[in-house]
Design brief:
Number of strands: 12
Number of helices: 2
Strand order of the largest sheet: 1-4-8-11-12
C-alpha cells in the first residue's frame, strides 16, 4: 500500500496575497505622500540658510559703511531688483542698460551676494533658490515712521501692512513663486512680521515654500 506524501507544500492563500499587496500599497502610499513634504522641508531649510547669508552680508555692508548713519543700504524709494531672463539672463541690468545704474538692490546683490562677479561681465547670478531660480531683492526705505506704506513688487508678492507691521501677502498668486527677499532697514522681527526698531538695525522677510514666512534680523 503506497504511503501518502506528507511533504507536500502549501501555496499562499488568496487572503495572504491580498494582505501582502495591501501592506506594500500602504507603504508605497506613505512614501509617495511623505517624500514631497520632506523635499519641501529640505528646500526651506536651505532657504533659511540663504537668508542667514543675506543677514551676514548686511552686517558686512554695515562694517564697510561704518562711517555712514545709517550704515545700511539707503533708498528714498523702494528699490527692487528682479534678475533678467531671456537674452539678458545672467547680467546685472537696470532699465535695459548694462550694470546696476542707481538700483541699490541690484548693487547689493552684485557686490555682496554674487561671488566673483563684476558689473558687466555677464556672469550668471549664483544667488539662487534651491530649485535653481535666482532670488529677487526688494529694499525698503529706512523705517523712520511709525506706520509703513505698502510695498508692491512687480511679482506675485507684496509687502503689506498688518497693523503697524510689515507682512508678506499674496498678490494675485502665490507669494512664494516670486522668490522675493524683502530687506527692511530699521526693522526687527516679531514672529513672521517686521516691526519698527532703530535705523541701524534691519530685518529680512522671505515666504517659504511649505512653512509660511521666515523672518530673521540682526538683533
Amino acid at each position: 500500500m503506497a504511503k501518502a506524501n506528507t511533504n507536500s507544500k502549501k501555496g499562499f492563500t488568496i487572503i495572504e496575497v491580498v494582505l501582502v499587496l495591501a501592506i506594500a500599497g500602504l507603504i508605497f502610499l506613505m512614501v509617495f505622500v511623505a517624500l514631497p513634504a520632506l523635499q519641501r522641508s529640505q528646500r526651506d531649510t536651505q532657504r533659511r540658510n540663504d537668508m542667514s547669508r543675506v543677514d551676514t552680508s548686511l552686517v558686512q555692508y554695515q562694517t564697510n559703511h561704518s562711517n555712514q548713519n545709517p550704515s545700511l543700504p539707503t533708498v528714498t524709494e523702494v528699490s527692487t531688483w528682479v534678475p533678467p531672463t531671456g537674452a539678458n539672463a545672467g547680467k546685472f541690468m537696470d532699465d535695459n542698460t548694462e550694470g546696476c545704474g542707481d538700483n541699490v538692490a541690484c548693487a547689493f546683490v552684485r557686490d555682496y551676494m554674487n561671488t566673483g562677479s563684476s558689473e558687466n561681465d555677464g556672469k550668471a547670478n549664483n544667488f539662487e533658490d534651491p530649485e535653481g531660480t535666482s532670488y529677487s531683492v526688494t529694499i525698503t526705505p529706512n523705517w523712520d515712521v511709525s506706520s509703513p506704506t505698502e510695498v508692491v513688487t512687480p511679482t506675485t508678492s507684496k509687502l503689506g501692512q498688518s497693523g503697524d507691521n510689515y507682512t508678506i501677502v499674496n498678490n494675485n498668486g502665490n507669494a512664494f513663486d516670486a522668490h522675493m527677499i524683502y530687506i527692511i532697514p530699521g526693522g526687527r522681527c516679531v514672529g513672521d512680521a517686521v516691526t519698527k526698531s532703530t535705523k541701524n538695525h534691519f530685518a529680512i522677510l522671505y515666504r517659504l515654500e511649505g512653512a509660511g514666512t521666515y523672518c530673521i534680523d540682526d538683533q
